[in-house]
Specification:
The chain has about 375 residues and is mainly alpha-helical. The protein has 13 helices and two strands.
Amino acid sequence: MTIEAARETARGLDNDDQWGRARRAGGAARRVGLLGGLAIALLVAMVIAAGRGQLDVPPSEVLGSVLHRIGLDLGPLPHHPQGENTLWQVRFPRVVTAALAGAALATAGALMQGVFGNPLAEPGVVGVSSGAAVGAASVIVFGWTFAGTWSAAVAAFVAGLVTTLLVYVLSRDAGRTETVTLVLTGIALTAMTSAGLAFLMFLGDSQAREEIVFWTLGSLNGSRWEQVAVIAPLTAVGIAAALVLSRQLDLLALGDRAARHVGVDVERLRLTTIAVVALLTAAAVAFCGIIAFVGLVVPHLVRLVSGPGHRVLVPASALGGALLLVLADLWARTAIEYADLPIGMLTSLVGAPVFFWLLRRARRTSGGWA
């Protein structure tokens, strides 16, 4: 090779290296912009949602109330005599619960789609939602009060976890769990729990049936700080565990065999991920009822912007899910005056068309799900 040719080759390699660095920098900026934009949108939505209702509180007064509570003498306080009590006893607990539940469900959906390698996967596949419904319905019908006013929530949480564990145990064969077997087992057990739920509704009186139907449709009505104190640590632990699992889920996207070759314990990863999904979903549905489509649609929409990498997909899905549920709850409280619509009905109303659009888009661009 001549000296001039060597120089040309060096310049070419240097240009490639510069282009690679620029591309990585652009990708990092896009990811930071996505997470920052979602975080800002979530904060704005929470401030607006906290102020809207039968007693309207302007956003400036909502911010002023929060700042005064943390010791900063900035901004105006609510001018209405009941403004402070309304914000701190009714609105803020409900808005924070919505954000936590949305983050939990969306993160669980991102994990499910990653571990199954299927965009149709969502937390309900492993039976946690249907199992939780049976637990709550049992308390409503039989009048159990082992945990006081929290009996239904505790029963729903425990029943959701037990159902998920049962699905996993039944789907194991020769020490391994195949994805298709796990999904089919989840579908079968969900059918059984649905039958059990129908039987409980048959046994209950008219009031019990109304309570069960309302619970299965999802609602954040009556949220309290005591509930936030339970949901918040469970959601934080679940999201932190999801971030830890992100790198292995990226490797699992290469296929089970390829993931094993690079040192991933696929069976252990699958079990751990399902346990985290069960924890996140049970924490959400125990207090909020069944809320559909959040864990299915939000990761899809985020993936269109962030790409498939779970280290960005997981936190972005958590923020996106929180934003979606805060806005859905605001809609549920304000769409009809003096009425509180079931939030699960609204998420389904929005989520189903969005998912249909995503399905059509994927079929047009790639001829199917990749």
